[in-house]
Design brief:
Layout (H helix, E strand, L loop, with lengths): L10 E4 L6 E2 L1 H14 L7 H7 L4 H8 L9 H15 L5 E2 L3 H10 L3 E9 H12 L5 E5 L10 H10 L6 E5 L2 H10 L3 E4 L6 H6 L5 E2 L7
Parallel strand pairs: 1-4, 1-6, 4-5, 6-7, 7-8
Antiparallel strand pairs: 2-3
Helix pairs in contact: 1-4
């Protein structure tokens, strides 16, 4: 894909962490709070970067010694959830160019959704806080809907917006996003400012790349 290619879809469905929002600092802080509180060694920011992408439960499974087998897992996970809901705005910000990109898409009458493996309440709160009415639908992890890379959250977003799959595109920063797009039957634009680099994404079948949010619109 040429470096400055433009895309023209009716519906744009975005991942959140690593795609629209730089959330790594707050995720790492809450992860380490929960680990330290329960007597476990803390993790570096680079380690947390590698752990994210499959939802926060998987993040903590990877961060806690012995993962789900650890008898303290549920307590550590609960401590993470409580801390993150209170501190998810401490350092989190949209990536440069994201707000301008969303405004341009909205001005052109496009449907815009966010689907995330983040807690449902956190996804809703972050999208309201940062994006307001620029995002039509925001869907996070909840018990009655299967998380990515299953297509359920994407399908629910399409349903809520009454949007056609054939004119929709999925945008994300990870291998999970590439799989989500494939499972949802739509093309995937992979961003290169997020949690995964070009080499990793190519190895996981990503084919279309952008280096700036404004290239999306």
């Amino acid at each position: 894909m040429p470096p400055h290619a433009q895309f023209n879809f009716d519906t744009y469905i975005f991942d959140l962490d690593g795609t629209l929002l730089s959330t790594l600092g707050d995720l790492a802080a809450s992860c380490n709070y929960a680990l330290k509180t329960n007597g476990f060694p803390e993790r570096s920011v680079d380690e947390v970067r590698r752990f994210v992408g499959n939802g926060v439960k998987k993040l903590m499974e990877r961060a806690i010694p012995d993962g789900l087998e650890n008898e303290k897992f549920e307590q550590v996970f609960a401590d993470f959830r409580k801390h993150y809901m209170m501190h998810n705005l401490d350092t989190t910000q949209p990536y440069p160019g994201v707000m301008e990109m969303l405004q341009e898409l909205k001005d052109r009458g496009k449907n815009i959704a966010v689907v995330s493996n983040k807690f449902y309440a956190a996804t809703q709160a972050l999208c309201r806080h940062f994006f307001g009415d620029l995002v039509d639908v925001a869907i996070g992890e909840r018990e009655d809907i299967q998380k990515k890379p299953a297509p359920d959250t994407v399908n629910e977003a399409l349903r809520q917006m009454n949007a056609d799959r054939e004119s929709a595109v999925y945008i994300g920063d990870s291998d999970v996003d590439v799989m989500t797009a494939k499972n949802s039957g739509m093309p995937c634009i992979s961003v290169l400012w997020g949690f995964r680099d070009l080499e990793f994404l190519i190895a996981h079948d990503a084919r279309i790349f952008v280096t700036s949010p404004l290239q999306i619109c």
